[in-house]
Amino acid sequence: MTDQLLLGCDHRPRTADTALRQRAAAVIPGGMYGHQSAGPLPPEYPQFLRAGLGARIWDVDGNEYVDLMCSYGPIVLGHLHPAVEAAAREQAALADCQNGPGAVMVELAEVLVGTVRHADWAMFAKNGTDATTMCCTIARAHTGRPRILVARGAYHGAAPWCTPRPAGVTPQDRANVGFYTYNDLESLRAAVATAGNELAGVLVSPFKHDAGFDQEPVDPKFARGLRALCTRAGAALILDDVRCGFRLHMGSSWEPVGVLPDLSAWSKAIANGHPLAAVLGSGTFRDAAASIFVTGSFWFSSTAMAASIATIRALREQNAVAAMEQAGTALRAAILAQAAARGLQIRYTGPAAMPYLTFVGDRNHELAAVFAGAAVRAGVYLHPRHNWFVSAALTDSDIEKALVGTAAGFAAVSARLASHDESADRSDEQGTSSATTQESGTRT
Ligand code: PMP
Fold first, then answer.
1. Contacts of 413 by beta carbon, 8 Å cutoff, 6+ apart
2. What is the reported pTM?
3. Per the structure, how many domains does the chain have?
4. pLDDT 10s digits, 136-188
């Protein structure tokens, strides 16, 4: 395929999306909020989506994409997984939101306790932020101490104590949060020492997956050191498994590392897109968990819990973790080959099922935006600043279509670099230099 063809892939005009954005601007502050608000996504991306099935999604204008974002993690078995949707429908036909929970709440807690090694009990909520916040509250209730340590730059949710944007947040909201550097045991030791007898817990993600940065696996020595420090201090080791849970392992994501947390926060993939979060904990923290007051109008809804039980069963029956690893490995090999064939220097980091691609030297994510913009136009929905998600529904033909998209992305990056080179040549002839070319010199 020529570059011209790759760049000019068929794509319906985004009439409906544009109209919805205009209407949204009138009735929704900023037209959109949170991680989908202005900034990270290039203009080629649709904002409004209409349908999803398996590993494919459709925007409101009818364009079809291979979905490599999986709703930022909740979709793990593919959109509208038949067994999950059947279980949800069956429960919904009885009742969803009632005066009290259904039997599914106890069944799901039993399933989770039987699935996750460190878990002796489970509590439920709706969002990842609910779960991470509850973990901190339980740690504080258990220890009677205020301070929580988090890795600098890590994302744990959007409540005032952890939101990455400072607007509307007071210093008091963050007063009891301290920082360490991920994978740096010395910095953790120093932060623990500074917290002294105020330390309630340390929050940590299974690997370093900060948005916009190359991903980094956890150093097992760091994980073990963290475990020892928490045990010695009587503080809670809190694993934020919101993003990774049940995508990398059918248990907590640090089980393969051999380190068990005291508390763990879950959401995203546990109900294949149905709204649910969970806190899992060890027996030591059971009384504290029972002592705090947490609830929500929709926290006991049965449909998402029924969906979660079916999701966990299907993940096991389909050997989904291995399937995601396999599909992700094939995708990685092909993408690395595409980049190498063009002489483009990229980094492709993270687990195969949760990869992230950056261009070497692309400090302002300029090339990442060019890549992602062309890729989405050519039919693969991925992200320039956030890790991607592979679902167990990704078939060989999905991978093939995804690779047409990434090929278009790389073609667009090559074209951008060539135009930089040309303008640099022109500037050189005129005796000036091009700052842009120097900044984004990513070609070998
Ligand atoms: N922790 C991690 C690691 C996350 O990735 C997220 C969501 N991206 C959260 C917490 C917060 O989850 P939610 O958006 O469901 O509140």
1. 342, 344, 359, 367, 370, 371, 374, 442
2. 0.94
3. 2
4. 999 999 999 999 999 999 999 999 999 999 999 999 999 999 999 999 999 99
